[in-house]
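Person: Show me a sequence?

Helper:
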Amino acid sequence: MATVEPAATLAPIAERAAAPARLPEITAGDLTWRPATVADAPALLELHNTIAAADGVPDREVLDEVTDLFDAPWRRFDTDTLLGFDAAGRLRAEGWVETPPGDVRTLRVFLDGGVHPDRRGEGIGRELFAWQVARGRQVMAESGKELPARLAVFTDDDVPAAKLRLYERAGFTPCRYYADLRRDLRDLESAPLPDVPLDGSLRIVPFSTELDEAARLAHNDAFRDHWGSEPKSPEQWTHSRACFVPRWSHLVVDDDPDVEALLADPRTDDETAAALRAGEPLVVGYAMNELFEGDFTTRGYTFGYTAILGTRKAYRGRKAGLAALVASMRSFAEDGMEYACLGVDTANPSGAHGLYAHVGYTLAYGSRLLSIEL
């Protein structure tokens, strides 16, 4: 696993980033390059799904997922995206560079992109990735954030070997592994879901917009001790919901929290403390779920997907997360979904693996994060 030097001993970010003054040109493949716009969404959708099919990746996107990318106010498409078109005007390659705006512990810059299968082997991917890495270093230097920094790229375990070699030649090494899990919901009589009673003043409720901000605060608290996680701003939290299914999502609230004890608890963050003083609702556990109909055919089954699941640190051990997860699984089954699916960091510190195994989840496939730590 990669390690990060303590922030107090780090050189200035502008020095560590070693950003080039000019970005490298891309000449391979004789493509025409320009930034992405929302009008490119249909072409991007076709490219994404063509690449996924060629690489044996079971995920497929729908148009709303792609157009949703362009709604994020922090994304800088004019400087941080690049699309390559052939002489006939067909999209043949894409490169994206993004840094989440809310990072306060580690400055992260994520790289994403790909080349159409028909145009691989021409050096396009190598030159495009060099551009992404160079632009990523510029983004870091421009950030002014004096934090540990990470250039990162996600990939499925079954990605073509050539793509892994590309990343490794550029200096990226695996730093985290993830497991995609699933639970069969087709015969709940022989494999029933457990009942999860909640104690004290805890109560499970359906997701609602009125509790959305309280759920964000719960998420930021729950994931403070998770590797690679950073606080989500309100804009980040409500973004990328093209596939979000509110009726499948569930929250656990504390109707009578011990406000004085929570305010005195050093684990209580400033935003939560302000909400408690204002008498706002306290969400202590949550499961936010999504529907990816485009993946049903490639996976061979229907499913509901738990995108994020968590429990506030002060409430761990009281089954809030488990209650929200099981309620989600019941919602999937009631809508005729054959499986419940989710993804988990294999080194998750909260005991999540035991929880998932307890309710019948098993491994479907895996992915990894490769990075350069600065």
The domain at 180-365 is CATH 3.40.630.30 (Aminopeptidase). Residues 1-7 have pLDDT under 50 and may be disordered. Residues 124-143 form the longest helix (20 residues). The CA atoms of residues 108 and 230 lie 9 Å apart.
